[in-house]
Amino acid sequence: MFQPKSSVVPSFPNQISCLCIDMYLPLVATSLSLLRLVRAGQQPLYFDFQENVCSVTEQSFFSTLRAPRIEEEHKHLGSCSHHAPAQAQVPESPYAPWTHKKQCLEDDENYQEYCVYTNANFANSRGISFFTTRSITKQVESLPAFVGQGVHDNTNKFDDPPWEVRNVPGRGNGLFATRTLHRGDEIIAATPVGVYHQDAFIPDRPIGYEYLRKTFDQLPNATREIILRTAANNQGDPIMERINTNAFLGEFEGAPHFLFYPETALMNHDCRPNSMHYHDPSTLIHATYASRTISPGEEITITYINILQTHSERQFHLKNVWGFDCTCSLCSSNPGEISTSDSRVREILQMQTHLADWNPNSLGTPRMARQLLALYEAEEVHAAMGKGHMLAALAYNAVGDTYKAKKHAKSAIEAGMVSSGEEDADLRDMTTLKENPEGHWSFMARVPK
Q1: Contact status, residue 8 vs residue 244, Cβ threshold 8 Å
Q2: pLDDT at 416
């Protein structure tokens, strides 16, 4: 990943809203439906959650020998292979669904208690640890991730991934395709190895992150090895610094949490990425899919920010929040190309606003929807094509052109609205429109009564 700023203590956001507001996402709420935003007159382009936000330089409170000793215990790790060894099942526990007795830490100053909960058998023995409050844990225990059968059978499969890890000069490790990937092809589908309440670190820090270390120690050995293979860009506590460097930040039951997906964290940023994410808040699966054809040897990239910003806005945000200057192909273009791109972005934002406006005086038209699709293509905003066809389907249906409405609804589905997942409300809505456009809520909605 990129090298974050050193010696900077982050100011953590108190509220994390939808992803595209700089990659923030409520993780345990239902997937945000674009359709609901369309009806509300809003339309963010891309949904994701904040990634690798921490850049704290932490002075370790372990003894000076503690950090090397953690890594010495696992010195047989080898290089960047992510092939996980077989993991042994932990025997049945009286603390179900947890395999270890909870261990709690009081935050006297804020009158709060944070506990460590581990299920070493989670997701076919990949394991997971939580460091959070009792009340949040109660909600977690009822998720399909813990009570569903077979929900993780097709996740965490790294024996023959379509990528390999390579070092990128100046940016650390990255993922590179080893075979051709087509739009919608799955790149990674994984469960987190750790979920940490943002405020839990405050009382744990003065005692040397003793409870954070428990979240690590109680995981299966093979999972601990995967964690230790990830980068730690600053000196300090070896587990805390890996969270600082690699964790995603989002809301979990209304509170900010860090989620650690080690494999996903290897992907670097690009302002015009070739992949897109989906997070299933009920199963905790975070999946990444190709948003266009990716050739063998090409780096697989994601975006850390809302990509529908001008060049100066993107650079300002990446520098101030992430601590680096973006040198992707778009940001490295000549001034004329950058100016043209900025103009297209402004047009896209304006058109999205009009097409999402369902007031009687809305300026949204089928012609505008076609123009929006053309602008997406010109700007190489590949992840938006499914949503663009959805807006076109609604625009045509709103004037009674059911033939073209069905055509674009079909294209929206076929374009792979994978960034929102198979059960997304938008996908269901487009299926309904394709099958019965006259019965859809948008039919004739923009024709004067």
Answers
A1: no
A2: 63
The CA distance from 312 to 189, in Å, is 33
Give the separation between CA 357 and CA 317, rounded to whole angstroms: 28
Any residues with CB less than 8 A from the CB of 219 and at least 6 apart, and which?
118, 120, 127, 128, 129, 193, 227
- Is the full-model pTM beyond 0.85? no
Candidates 70, 103, 35, 80; CA nearest to 226 is 80
Q: Which two tokens stand for residue 238?
A: 């070896």
Closest by CA position to 198, among listed 253, 144, 141, 277: 253
Tell me if 431 sits within 8 A of 396, measured CB to CB.
no
Helix, strand, coil percentages in the chain from 3-state DSSP, rounded to 5: 35, 15, 45
Q: Name, in order, each residue with C-beta under 8 angstroms of 299's C-beta and a sequence gap of 6 or more.
A: 168, 174, 175, 176, 177, 268
Quickly list DSSP for 260-320.
E-TTGGGPEE-SS-SEEEEEETTTTEEEEEESS-B-TTPEEEE-SS-SSS-HHHHHHHIII
User: What φ, ψ does residue 327 adopt, rounded to 5°?
Assistant: -120, 30
Going by their DSSP bridges, the two strands 50-51 and 186-190 should be labelled as unpaired
Q: 271 with 170: CB under 8 angstroms? A: no
More confidently predicted of 103 and 421: 103
Q: Supply the pLDDT for residue 26.
A: 26
Q: Whole-angstrom Cα distance, residue 363 to residue 91?
A: 62
Report the mean per-residue pLDDT for the chain: 80
Per the structure block, which two tokens stand in for 365?
A: 């038209």
Q: Which pLDDT band, with edges at 50, 70 and 90, does 91 fall under?
A: low
Q: Tell me the residue type at 177.
A: A
HSE (side-chain half, CA atoms, 13 Å) at 42 = 11
DSSP letter string, 318-338: IIIII-----STTTTS-HHHH
Report the range out of 76-85, 159-168, 381-390, 391-400 with the highest average pLDDT: 391-400
Cβ atoms of residues 146 and 95 within 8 Å: no
